[in-house]
């Protein structure tokens, strides 16, 4: 099983994530024909598919997972311009957001908002440059800081900049330049 998973990771565009107690794995297999997030049990005597979360009508580009109040959740972003949230324990979709005007490239749960304000917040980025303010081209990736409880959010864009934001104040802190153009 490990050999197969390593082969998948090397040859396909697969993003992996761990769920509770490290006994399950979440797989987002990006394919023009697959619009599903899969969850497998892999550290048992036999691996098996636990669940497939369906709902998107286009390619799923990003997934994230988190535990809030001892409940497990997955969020996903798709080319259908939507962010969806599933309750893993109850195997059901609990939320769908359609605020983006373009495909959603990246989704992340904010541990900062949960631990400091008891709010369930998801940050997402899109081709239409909608993440806080500043980028003039699509935002392809976001990441919360591993320090200060995730208070800072970093974003990378096709406008060749990386931007750092304070999520408590929603203010930009720094712009990092130096990358060459992605296209052209």
From TrEMBL:
Pfam families: WD40. InterPro entries: WD40/YVTN_repeat-like_dom_sf, WD40_repeat_CS, WD40_repeat_dom_sf, WD40_rpt. PROSITE patterns: WD_REPEATS_1, WD_REPEATS_2, WD_REPEATS_REGION. Keywords: Repeat, WD repeat. SUPFAM superfamilies: WD40 repeat-like. Transmembrane segments: none annotated. WD repeats lie at residues 53-96, 132-175. Gene3D superfamilies: YVTN repeat-like/Quinoprotein amine dehydrogenase (2.130.10.10). This is WD-40 repeat-containing protein. It comes from Reticulomyxa filosa.
């Amino acid at each position: 099983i490990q050999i197969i998973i390593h082969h998948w990771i090397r040859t396909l565009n697969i993003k992996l994530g761990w769920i509770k107690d490290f006994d399950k794995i979440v797989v987002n297999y990006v394919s023009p024909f697959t619009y599903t997030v899969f969850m497998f049990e892999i550290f048992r005597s036999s691996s098996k598919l636990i669940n497939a979360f369906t709902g998107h009508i286009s390619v799923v580009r990003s997934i994230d997972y988190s535990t809030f109040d001892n409940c497990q959740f997955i969020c996903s972003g798709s080319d259908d311009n939507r962010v969806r949230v599933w309750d893993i324990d109850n195997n059901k979709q609990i939320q769908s957001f359609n605020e983006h005007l373009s495909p959603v490239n990246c989704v992340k749960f904010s541990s900062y908002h949960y631990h400091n304000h008891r709010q369930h917040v998801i940050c997402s980025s899109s081709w239409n440059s909608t993440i806080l303010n500043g980028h003039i081209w699509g935002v392809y990736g976001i990441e919360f800081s591993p320090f200060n409880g995730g208070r800072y959010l970093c974003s990378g864009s096709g406008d060749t900049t990386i931007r750092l934001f304070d999520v408590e104040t929603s203010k930009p802190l720094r712009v990092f330049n130096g990358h060459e153009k992605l296209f052209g």
